[in-house]
Design a protein that fits this description.
Number of helices: 6
Number of strands: 28
Strand content: 35-45%
Helix content: 10-25%
Length: 416
């Protein structure tokens, strides 16, 4: 059952064991148990045995592709009467000669104040057992999200015609050798067009999808509920912050870091499209004169035309040619938060916009507030604490341009 902590959050960890786990069995099930006739679910609740949860989702920088997210849990196998142990054929999670905790079994972690907010949804990748004499045993389960599944899948050769990046993502996911459910994907309409690409036999599916995301200049990731998201290229955002951190009224911050330097600058971007012979180059000459040349080169990008490559290069140059003092990472400790703040932390998602403030005891200004976008989320949960580390990227928020009201040269406004 779900486990409540002393700081107010409630957690639940569910595991698919591959068979109906709550089917009423004569001479085995108890009359007052939760088992039902014919059974209703393959999931078992393993929360009471879990001692540690570590979730790692997102990417390091805004120029990286999103890797597969992971979740690692540690469980007390002795308290579970060796139910986790694949060598124990008496385990309730062992059926018909098969081990219930097997690769690609569904795996879910929930949090929040009621234990109903999805924090991770994925699939079992690995199960490791550690024995300590005389009778101690610990189970470690490693799970990955759907990107991990796609990274182990390959395409059969096919040759799609020119289409929007969003249509190309759907075309790859719809392939019979991929067969990714339409119910667990959210595909935004792209702004870039992919060219005709001859995908060879055994092309890695995840790499093919990440190449399309690079061509779009958008995001391809799996959210905390297990849905694959493809976000279109965004130059500016009309969104608003979903939560405030720091300052006098925001969610309290334990630590905050900012970056400012060469790692935040790109002033020469070269994009060579698939099958092309030359790169389209966007250069920020003023930035190069001020900070030196910081180059990014993308090759084999599956765009339809050199003009599309030029547009991608210019988009990246515009975003990154000037150094920006940016809040890059913060730590939040759930133990000290209110119920509402804990609910906010459990529901944070990649792509969310946050308002982050830092107040200083000396210097000017006394308070700095920035809008940032969530690029990574790490949860570390043990019996005494729950720490969340949020990696952040830069975002430009604008207001909708209003005719006869907004100034033409005001960069705080844009057309929707």
């Amino acid at each position: 059952m779900a486990k409540a902590t002393k700081w107010g959050s409630t957690y639940k960890v569910l595991l698919d064991v591959g068979f109906l786990a709550d089917a009423f069995t004569l001479d085995s099930s108890k009359l007052d148990s939760t088992d039902v006739l014919n059974g209703s679910t393959n999931f078992v609740d393993i929360t009471e045995y879990v001692t540690n949860i570590n979730i790692n989702r997102g990417r390091a920088t805004q120029l990286d592709s999103f890797p597969s997210s992971s979740c690692t849990i540690t469980a007390d196998d002795r308290a579970a009467e060796r139910y986790f142990d694949p060598l124990n054929t008496d385990s309730e999670w062992y059926s018909g000669g098969s081990v219930g905790i097997a690769p690609r079994r569904a795996f879910q972690v929930y949090g929040g104040t009621a234990g109903t907010t999805a924090m991770f949804t994925g699939f079992v990748y690995d199960l490791n057992m550690d024995y300590a004499e005389p009778n101690l045993s610990t189970a470690t389960i490693v799970a990955t999200d759907a990107l991990g599944q796609l990274g182990q899948t390959v395409l059969t050769a096919f040759n799609p015609s020119s289409q929007l990046t969003s249509a190309r993502v759907s075309a790859i996911l719809d392939r019979p050798e991929v067969a990714f459910s339409t119910a667990t994907r959210s595909i935004e309409t792209g702004v870039a067009t992919c060219g005709t690409v001859a995908y060879e036999d055994a092309t890695n599916v995840l790499q093919a999808l990440q190449d399309v995301a690079t061509a779009e200049g958008g995001r391809l990731f799996v959210d905390r509920s297990g849905n694959l998201n493809f976000d279109a290229r965004i130059a500016v955002s009309f969104g608003t912050a979903v939560a405030s951190f720091g300052g006098t009224a925001g969610v309290p911050i334990q630590s905050l870091a900012n970056v400012y330097g060469a790692e935040t600058v790109l002033n020469r971007v070269a994009v060579q499209i698939e099958g092309g012979t030359a790169s389209s180059i966007a250069s920020g000459t003023a930035s190069q004169a001020e900070y030196g040349i910081k180059a990014l080169s993308l090759t084999g990008v599956p765009l339809a035309t050199d003009a599309a490559g030029s547009a991608l290069a210019l988009s990246l140059l515009t975003r990154f040619q000037e150094p920006v003092v940016r809040f890059s990472e913060m730590d939040v400790l759930l133990n000290a938060l209110t119920t509402a703040q804990q609910a906010t932390m459990a529901s944070l998602e990649i792509g969310d916009i946050l308002s982050v403030s830092k107040t200083f005891s000396t210097g000017t200004p006394a308070t700095v507030t920035q809008n940032v976008v969530v690029e990574s989320i790490r949860h570390t949960v043990n019996p005494s604490t729950h720490r969340v580390t949020i990696g952040m990227g830069q975002v430009q928020l604008v207001l909708p341009f209003i005719l006869d009201t907004s100034a033409l040269d005001d960069t705080d406004y844009a057309l929707q």
